[in-house]
Amino acid sequence: MHFSGERPAGDLTYSDVFLVPRRSDVTSRLDVDLSPGDGTNATIPIVASNMNSVTGPRLAATLARRGGLAVLPQDMALQDVDAGIRWVKDQPVRWDTPLVLSPDALVSDAASLLPPASGHGIVVASTTGRVHVDDILGIVPAARLGTALPDARLGDLVRGRAASIDADDVDSARAAFDLLIAADADIVTVLHHGYLVGTLSQRTALRSSLYRPAVDADGRLIVAAAVGINGDVAAKARALAAAGVDALVVDTAHGHQESMIRALRAVSAEKLGLPIVAGNVVTAEGVEDLVAAGATILKVGVGPGAMCTTRMMTAVGRPQFSAVLETAEAAAATGAHVWADGGVRYPRDVALALAAGAASVMIGSWFAGTIEAPGDLRVDAEGRVFKESWGMASTKAVQGRFGRLDPFERARKELFAEGISSSRIYLDPLRPSVEDLLDMITSGVRSSFTYAGAATVADFHERATVGFQSAAGYEEGKALPVSW
């Protein structure tokens, strides 16, 4: 990366900078390869944060299907993480995971899982688990949920047998799309040897022509998991590796400390053959010490996240663009990589983090307001759909993490909480799914690459040219939804 003028003396965040277009021979966004090259097998540079309100197995599978990577949080019980990893590994790579409910389930049950959005639906079946075609009553499109009474039975909303396709009949994205058009269906069930293996929508078929799934050596979807720095970290790492995890994240708010270094050395000594991510840090010194202890990827960012109050509580942190820039330079010198963690609110921020040298960008609260994020959908007094989000150092998170302590010790822990305990993250009516957000983000980032004349992430690191702008310059770049 280069600055268009002199390198500013002070630290910068994403809104302080912009990308300068360069002469380019990359003429199509489809010619851009977004693979981060950080050893994780991801094919797009997007990582879902290890936050309880952001990443669960459902979001992890969906994100990996489109080439990204999600990190299951360290606050999950080890047996739940184990089950989550194995569940992700069992999910279809080519199809969407079907949402199956019984005919006696109510519309309100389905509405807690899906908003009334096109391309989604509930498979209504008389059995759960492995569903035979004879047990499928039909599909209730998600759009139908918005007009039905909450106490209506799903079985009463089924209108004939669901259109279906056989997995063996689909050998390309175009073939899948053409089958849906021929069936005059927005969403169909996918069958293999007479059993339900997934659902397919027109949008899913199109996406499969643009994204490459992130899979392991056995062709299964990838998933990462986080551990803290306390307790027997090595034993936890071994258990996660045995469950099939694809990357380990050793995580704490202040990563440049002795306890982190000891934990990293213990995990590294296990020689599990997995990428080891560690953080969070914001300095070159932090990178060097954690790499020396065994980290291969550094998680960068202190305080930029939407749910984080660290900077206001402690004055500790660093503007994120400069943090990524310095740490990425230090990591590159050691052969390690950087994940830019936090502060992302627009696709431009993802592009700027990559320009600064990040291999991937971690997204938290933005993904919390999606269909696939953990937790039920809720509706406010104005009819807007939202999910609840909270910070990982907040009082709510601390209460959950230390729930087994006696009341006195738990209350002492709560005195040192930092972060927002409850926030409503509203679903974008036009982009309710994490896949919809990925479409927007990757489209913007691909365009950024073409403006820079870069066909790969490595090219972008080299060719990106960054300028410094005033607050007025940043405001000038915003679109106006109404006239002035």
UniProtKB/TrEMBL annotation:
The keyword RNA-binding does not apply. Coiled coil: none annotated. K(+) binds at residues 303, 305, 308. One of its GO terms (biological process) is IMP salvage. Its EC number is 1.7.1.7. NAD(+) binds at residues 251-253, 301-303. InterPro entries: Aldolase_TIM, GMP_reductase, GUAB1, IMP_DH, IMP_DH_GMPRt. The gene is guaB1. Pfam families: IMPDH. Residues 12-478 form the IMP dehydrogenase/GMP reductase domain. This is GMP reductase. Its cofactor is a monovalent cation. The keyword Transport does not apply. GO terms for molecular function: GMP reductase activity; IMP dehydrogenase activity. Involved in the purine-salvage pathway. Catalyzes the NADPH-dependent conversion of GMP to IMP. GO terms for cellular component: cytosol. NCBIfam families: IMP_DH_rel_1, PRK07807.1. NADP(+) binds at residues 251-253, 301-303. Pathway: Purine metabolism; IMP biosynthesis via salvage pathway. Belongs to the IMPDH/GMPR family. GuaB1 subfamily. Keywords: NAD, NADP, Oxidoreductase, Potassium, Purine salvage, Repeat. It catalyses: IMP + NH4(+) + NADP(+) = GMP + NADPH + 2 H(+). The active site is at 308 (thioimidate intermediate).
